[in-house]
Amino acid sequence: MSRLAWLNGLPLEAARAELLRCCGSTRWAEGMARARPFASEAAVYSEADRLWSQTGPEDWREAMTHHPRIGDVSKLREKYKATATWSSQEQRGVAGASEEVLQGLADGNRAYEERFGFIFLVCATGKSAGEMLALLRERMNNAPDVELRVAAGEQAKITRIRLEKLLTSP
Q1: pLDDT value at residue 12
Q2: How many other CB atoms are found less than 10 A from the CB of residue 56?
């Protein structure tokens, strides 16, 4: 059975739970679960984009609560068990970082949360810790409303990557 057929065949609540692993917005996951069956993987991605475009700040903030801080491996293992493997793969660039860069990320995360009221969210796949730190520092200059939209855009990228994993991983 293909993963698409598997997703299409899940009971509503089970599908919703699987989709919450891709994006922590309850509204988005519920919409995706109810939009099944999908005719193709492309239809999944298209509907995901469409539904995300209909969400707003409350949904974005909810989705952000489902992510560990960049570089926070202990929290990743403890709190985010359902997505820990995906998150650790996404944050692979932190693994070889220097102590200085790791401390910069820790300090930057605290300052970011104080300024914006939510965690620094970046699509970490393929980025080094240094690149993520540079992005964090750059984004600190954004106005709060602009930064919330930037973070929502990063969530959309993460969701796409996680949907691809959901549809291809056994």
Answers
A1: 98
A2: 11
Task: Decide if 80 contacts 67 (C-beta within 8 A).
Answer: yes
38 close to 7: Cβ distance less than 8 angstroms = yes
Q: Catalytic residue, from 20, 59, 67, 152: name it.
A: 67
pLDDT digits (tens, 9 = 90+) for 62-85: 999 998 888 765 554 454 455 545
* Phi, psi dihedrals of residue 151, rounded to the nearest 5°: -60, -40
Q: Could you tell me which residue, 55 or 106, shows the higher pLDDT?
A: 55
**What was the pLDDT predicted at 169?**
83
pLDDT at 87 over 60: no
pTM of this structure: 0.85
Helix (H), strand (E), coil (C) string for the chain: CCHHHHHHHCCHHHHHHHHHCCCCCHHHHHHHHHHCCCCCHHHHHHHHHHHHHCCCHHHHHHHHCCCCCCCCHHHHHHHCCCCHHHHHHHCHHHCCCCHHHHHHHHHHHHHHHHHHCCCCCCCCCCCCHHHHHHHHHHHCCCCHHHHHHHHHHHHHHHHHHHHHHHHHCC
67 included as an active-site residue: yes
